[in-house]
Amino acid sequence: MRRTKEDAEQTRLKIIAAALELFSKNGYSNTTLAMIADEAGFSRGPIYWHFKNKDELYQAVLGFSQQPLEKLITQSQSMAERPLEALEHFVSEWFRLLLEDRWHRQSFEILLNKTEFTEQMADTLARERKLTRDIVTLLETLIEAAIPSSDPGTAKPHSRALFVYASLMGITHSWLFSPELFNLKSQQTFFTKQLLADCRPPRPA
Prior knowledge:
By secondary structure, the chain is mainly α. It folds into 2 domains: 2-57, Homeodomain-like (Arc Repressor Mutant, subunit A, Orthogonal Bundle), CATH 1.10.10; 66-197, Tetracycline Repressor, domain 2, CATH 1.10.357. It has helices at residues 2-26, 33-40, 44-50, 54-65, 67-78, 83-100, 102-113, 122-146, 157-177, 184-197. α1 packs across α2 and α6 (83-100) runs antiparallel to α10. This is Transcriptional regulator.
């Protein structure tokens, strides 16, 4: 029985991996379940055993490929007593995952460049919007802990958190859409330093 469950899970992961590859290459609309089955080396039967339809498979693909990002959020939350260190960890790991984790990178490629969102994808949109809120809330909490609220000259933590998040997404989108524009590996230290500069307490005059 255990072996049967293990085999079923391996089949499920192969389907997800094949779907991730094809969604990132062809886009959501141009990828069929038949294409995914062929890529995975199965008939369509195993796909329908694990997933009700393509939308459900798409959600599973994003859920699986975004696990490293969700883990990063949890890690950074656990470092809240050291907010500046936690912020640096989050930003630097964001770039490292983009560079080193192919599935994580492909999840962004699918979301940002290869998906036309429709009413049928309401559950996916709700999930992604929640993930966005979780990230902004994390950044806001850490920035609020890092910068004294008594300083009247500082922007609100929420505004700073939005700036950091929007900057991370902008860099990510630009690099995925036009990778020849800049070398992310060589620029990641500069990007991290610049983003963190706005999260530190102001220097005394």
